[in-house]
Amino acid sequence: MAMSKTGDFGNDKSPKRKREAEETAPSKRSQKRKRASAHPEDEDIDEERGINLALARMNPDLLADYIARKTKRFAKEATLVELEARRVPVHAFTDTTEWTEARILDQLPSFLEHFSDGAEELCQAPEETGSPHTLVVTATGLRAADLTRSLRKFQTKDVLIAKLFAKHFKLSEQVDVLEKKRVSIGVGTPTRLVDLLDSGRLYTFQFHLIRFPDTLLPGALKIDKLKRIVVDLSHVDQKRRGMLGMAEAQKPLIDLINRPEIKNRYGPVAAKIDLLFF
Questions:
Q1: In contact, 232 and 148? CB cutoff 8 Å
Q2: How far apart are CA 103 and CA 12, in angstroms?
Q3: E strand or H helix at 275, and its extent?
Q4: Measured between alpha carbons, how far is 96 from 118 in angstroms, rounded to an integer?
Q5: What is the Cα Rg of the chain in Å?
Q6: Where are the beta strands (DSSP E) in 86-231?
Q7: I need a surface site. Which of 2, 69, 215, 277 has the fewest CB within 10 A?
Q8: C-alpha to C-alpha distance for 74 and 87, rounded to whole angstroms
Q9: In contact, 199 and 219? CB cutoff 8 Å
C-alpha cells in the first residue's frame, strides 16, 4: 500500500484539511460574542450618544435579574448563599420606565425633577452639614465631573452640589468640606462614597480618672436625610461598557447600595430611600 512522501500513512493534518478545520472552528471572538448575547435584551447600545437604551425599558423585576447576573459575573468563586446576600431586592427599585426621554447627560436634571418634588426641593438642603437628600453614583471621576456640571442649576450660595470622587480631590479635603457645608446633592464614585461614609473617627471621653468607652462618630457623609440614590447605569464608555461591566466600579456599587443602613430603608418604610437607575 502506498505511503505519502512524508512517510505519514493517512495523515489527517494535511495543509488542506488543517485549513478546512480552522475555517469551520468557531473563533474566540465569535464565541465571546455568543456569550455576550446570551441575554440580548440587556443591550441596545446607541454608540453616538453613549447609552444603553435597553435599561430604560427594564422594570424592577428585570433590573433585579440584570444586576444579579452582572454581580455573578465578577464573583465566580462566590457560593449561592453569598450571591443571594449580595442580591438587591426587587422592592428596592423605583420603576422609571415611565420616563421616555433619552437618559443622556443633559436630561439628568429633568429626570431628577420628575422623580422628586421638583426643582425647589432639589435646591434645598438639610440644615445638618454633609447630609444630602440625593446621591448620584457613577463609574469614574471624569464622568462624575460632567454630571456635577449638569446639575449646577440646583446649587445656590448656601447649598452645595458636592464633588465626591477621587480625581484631583483628597479624601481629607472632602471630609473637611462635608463637615462645614450644607449639601443638597452629592455626585461621586462608589468607592469614594463608601470611604466618606466610613470616615468617622473614634471619640475618647475621660472625666477625671474615669475613661468612658470609645465612641465611633458618624462619617463626614451622612445619610440620615437621604431620599434617593441615582445610579448612572445607562451610560457606556468607548468600549461599550456600562457601570456594571467594569469590575472596579461594579463591586463597590453593590457594596454601597447593599449597606445595611441603606438597604433597610428600601421599600414602604419610614425614611424611605428610592433607588433609581438613570
A1: no
A2: 56
A3: strand 274-277
A4: 16
A5: 25
A6: 134-137, 160-164, 183-188, 202-203, 206-207, 210-211, 215-216, 228-231
A7: 2
A8: 13
A9: yes
pLDDT above 50 (res 10)? no
Amino acid symbol at 148: T
- What is the DSSP pairing of strand 210-211 with strand 206-207? antiparallel
The mean pLDDT value for 117-138 works out to 97
Q: Which amino acid appears at position 199 of this protein?
A: S
* Cross-strand partners of 36: none
More confident residue, 36 or 160: 160
pLDDT band for position 77 (50/70/90)? confident
Place of cell 453614583: 137
DSSP 6-65: TS-TT-TT-HHHHHHHHHHSPPHHHHHHHHHTTSGGG--EETTTTEEGGGGG--HHHHHH
CB distance 113 to 105 below 8 Å: no
Please give the backbone phi and psi of residue 184, each rounded to the nearest 5 degrees, phi first. Answer: -90, -50
The whole-number average pLDDT for the span 43-65 is 95
Give the number of other CB atoms < 10 A from CB of residue 68: 16
φ, ψ dihedrals at 219, nearest 5° = -65, 170
